[in-house]
Amino acid sequence: MKIFTTLIKSLVLSLILAVPGYASSIYLSGDSNIFTTSEDNEIFFQNVFNGKTVANYSSSSLSGLGTTATVTNYGSGATVTSAGLGANDFMIFGYTRTSVSASELTAISNYVSGGGSLFLFGEGNTSFTSLNIAVNAILGAVGSSMSLSTTLNLDLGGNNIQPLQNLVTTGSQTNGVNSWFTAYASFINLGSGTALISGTGNAGVNGVAIAVETSAVPVPAAFPLLLAALGGLGLVGRRRKAS
């Protein structure tokens, strides 16, 4: 019986440890003009958002980009709450937000800790410095090492959407993306993030248009389950021994 109990315990332990964690991803862009069908921008959004559920707290929209995402558009004026974020796969946050409150940061941090992913974007125009500061506050609250510059712009040649030249793409999210449009984009400080789309702007300035940082999130329910299972088996073992 002792051998049997030991085998069952080992089996339970193996099954629980085999339960995978899930990845929380933070996508970062320096420009709202990425939400366009110009060039291959929409292909990127389809790669990232197809089949996902999304809480959108920005003035930009996935509408018209051809994704199969299910989106709740709260708009940039809505307060970010845990109830609003719910069990969605993604939260979008950016233009035209000018601030983020402490309660919103808490809700977003808890959301990411639970496995939710973020798609954040700022602006390169200095008129939107407060937006970049708000985005950076979120990045700091969730432990990201990425940030947006509040002084440096990627494209300095004009307000019109401009193509990135000498485009470099990395990862499955950029499959099929051969060219990319952006406008006044804030520089992205990568930290430990990965540049997904980068190139040379119309003024000859090199920079990153999209970056991502991904971290594994453990399944917290596994630990109580493990203790309960092993405790229950131990109790059964003691009762059998007593009888």
**How confident overall, as mean pLDDT?**
85
Roughly what percent helix?
25-40%
Described by strand count, sense and barrel closure, the largest sheet is: 8 strands, mixed
The total domain count is 2
Summarize the structure in words.
- The protein is of the alpha/beta class.
- It folds into two domains: about 1-20 and about 220-243; about 25-215, no CATH class.
- It contains six helices and twelve strands.
- It has helices at about 1-20, 40-50, 80-85, 100-115, 130-140, 220-240; strands at about 20-30, 55, 70-75, 90-95, 115-120, 145-155, 160-165, 165-170, 180, 185-190, 195-200, 205-215.
- The strands form three sheets. It has an eight-stranded mixed sheet with strand order 3-2-4-5-1-12-11-8, with helices on one face.
- Helix 1 (about 1-20) packs antiparallel against helix 6.
Quick rundown:
The protein is α/β, with parallel strands linked by helices and 243 residues long.
Protein traits:
alpha/beta, 8-stranded mixed beta sheet, 6 helices, 243 residues, two-stranded antiparallel sheet
